[in-house]
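Q: A reviewer asked whether we had any structural model of the full assembly, not just the individual parts. We don't, so I'm hoping you can provide one. Inputs are below.
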Amino acid sequence: MTSASISKAEKSYIQAGLLTSPPRRADGRSLHDFRAIYLETGVAPLSNGSARLSIGRNPLDGSGGTEVLAAVKLEVENIEEQTLDGGRIACNVSCSPSAYPHLSSGALDDLQHDLTTVLHQTLSHPSLHPKNLGIIPRKKSWLLNLDLLVTAEAGNIYDALFLAARAALWDTKVPRTRSVEYKSPKTFLSASGDMDVDQDTRSGFDTRHVAHATDFELPDYWDEGEILEGRERWPVAVTLNLLHTAHFLDATLQEEASCASRLLVVYSHESPTAYTIQSMRMLGSDELSIPHLKKLIKEAEGYTRSMATSLTTKLEDEDFRRNQKAREKFGRRK
Amino acid sequence: MFEFKSFQQPADDHFVKNVPEDIDMDEDDEDFLETGGMKLTWPGESLTSSQDYMRGHGTYVDNEEVVASVSGLVERVNKLITVRAVRTRYNPEVGDLVVGRITEVQPRRWKVDGNSRQDAVLMLSSVNLPGGVQRRKLESDELQMRTFFEEGDLLVAEVQAFFGDGTMSLHTRSLSYGKLRNGQLVTVPPILVRRLKSHFISLPCGVDLILGLNGYIWVSKHVKENEREGEEAFDAEAVYSNRNDDIDDSTRMAISRVTNLIIILASRSIPLTDTILLDAYDWSLEQEGDVKDLLQEDASDALVTTILAKG
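A: Here is a predicted structure for the entire assembly that you could use as a starting point for your response.
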């Protein structure tokens, strides 16, 4: 589908290389090696959270590699149905035509739709839903729009999308809100709806109070808001490219073209010991036996765990770097 | 296993550091208008007056001045000013050796992606057909064109002529041209491949290179001179085969190593010649790391320094 055209000789050269022992890949990697992943958060100032990610770009001139931009924008939504309480998440993936020059616009639409479906179904699952997307119960909530743009593709697009999505969601700040209530005008006041703002100290049991809240305001505060609840839960994906009984990670376009099927496994690692499988997808035409599948799923857990751990470390570094930068900027201004 | 890195942060003082203070940026030298003058330019730089000179490719006229629209080398022919871009697609010339990939099979011709502005054309009449080099093409040949080349196949060919719209026409009517096997392709900017005496290079490490002038480079296992297909008689079966020979582990390593070296040299805009590649290969063998470690930034920096020092 997305694969680059490749000759039979190239294909068998790659396959033979993967199946020899020790396995040899075109760029000298071993089967389970990833290319270097470049990551930066906070790249889009107008978004609530954003990230730029590149797998396998050339460090010298920045060419090549799969590149993905992810951005989160929060939008206030009026709740019409009761079921939507607590906000919702909408993912969208768009692919730049320059990333897929050989695809027609129809094929590009199909591809975007495929990627969007996988991402949306996984990330908008209730088990991952952050608890702080509500504003006023049964009236207003945040709609979290997660948009991803593929600007260049050099293989392994699913892993890149999930990594970028996780980084952008990690970076997301939800603006603080305060409920506003209109008190019914007292008879002895010459009142035309005098406005009262409730305080942060109100009791959580005071549901009566909340039920009357009709609107909210955004208090002016020194930071952009609070982080999304449960941001450690956001999953990471790993694509296992299957060739006979062997599997390899982080395939280039040529390698993707020379193996018949791929298995995408998405795991959420809330803590180093607790993990849940969030989604799984078989891409391609080959069949897979159940025992083999079981083994692969188990191995995928190991890969995603170390991927999630390194990603979290990197994201914490990024947070620190940006805080540091902001502080320096602030200090310079004084 | 997973390595996360930061994008390179542009240093704030990068540009200031590199410009010597006594340079007069507004210097108005028009030496490049003399014959043999060389000047590099960048988009937006005004080159000369549009009243005295004519604008050519890579330039436009603004405020009665000829302004460069691409970065590259300024060239002048009589009153015509052109800029030859550094990053561009391949501009074919007759006789060039190119490596291409079949994109389409059409009646009596193949369309070939040759990194040029348009797809190249390979006519059925300009390939070697089974049963002798000099033979009329038959209807049966037209029907089995996919047995010679099919979509995705890589081939090495020579630019034969141009069509009216500038499309290049290729031919493979030589025993050294034809389908490519036993290796992998690496792509570099076309400007980095110079015209050499021979574009078929054999490195002593058991690797053959075909430097296509269009920037496609084929890195493959060395085939001995006397074992080449069709050396005595033309053997269509072997020439149009899709099957690879057995490639041993050390050859595979060498192919990967050469590929990575080409990628590094190309990303630093170092023109590729056989001597440079040999030097680079020898250097990389002396290093401790694995083949994949070559692509690390410090290793490639060291390589480029060594190569540039040798001149």
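A: Points you may want to mention in the reply: The longest helix of chain B spans residues 249-267. The helical segments of chain B are 14-18, 139-143, 145-148, 236-239, 249-267, 274-286, 297-310.
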